[in-house]
Amino acid sequence: MAADSSAVEIGEDRSLLLVDDDEAFLKRLAKAMEKRGFAVETAGSVAAGTAIATARPPAFAVVDLRLEDGNGLDVVERLRETRPDARVVVLTGYGAIATAVAAVKIGATDYLSKPADATDITNALLAREEELPPPPENPMSADRVRWEHIQRVYELCDRNVSETARRLNMHRRTLQRILAKRSPK
């Protein structure tokens, strides 16, 4: 498999761990990644993913953030302990800046929001570290960026509305109305 200027080759070790509790998505992604030359192993839980990361640490991993039995970042941490050179992409349907920062801090190579297709995931796994990723096709709106910031501060304040409002310098009731609404697109 030849590499273009923006990607690295898969290399000798083609092992890929996919961890997701959505069984249908996991099967589709596994099949697509096998077609792209990866040797895929799947896990449907934090426990199974951690066990594989311990016994047979892969060169690549795609880990869902929220799993039924816990947080996918536990799998990322275990993989970093057993194989520091692994390239890990955290994938989630609950995209938030705070979780993206946490994922990258513990060693994830990249962070993608669902729905991400096999091409997006492959590009993230094989991207050269020194190159910047291409700009997003659909960047977040200004309203969404504001909402993400408010959510991050709210989480950092342990979901305390009064403390969050004080730190954001806004009225508590205004903050409550913002928090009660769905996230903007």
UniProtKB/TrEMBL annotation:
Pfam family, one: Response_reg
4-aspartylphosphate PTM sites in chain numbering: 64
Ranges that cross the membrane: none
Top-level taxon in the UniProt lineage: Bacteria
Keyword terms of this UniProt record: DNA-binding, Phosphoprotein, Transcription, Transcription regulation, Two-component regulatory system
Presence of keyword Transit peptide: no
CDD domains referenced in this protein's UniProt entry, alphabetically: REC_RegA-like
Gene3D superfamilies reported for this sequence: 3.40.50.2300, Homeodomain-like
Stretches assigned to the Response regulatory domain: 15-129
InterPro entries for this protein: ActR_PrrA_rreg (IPR047772), Bact_response_regulator (IPR050595), CheY-like_superfamily (IPR011006), Sig_transdc_resp-reg_receiver (IPR001789)
Name of the protein in question: ActR/PrrA/RegA family redox response regulator transcription factor
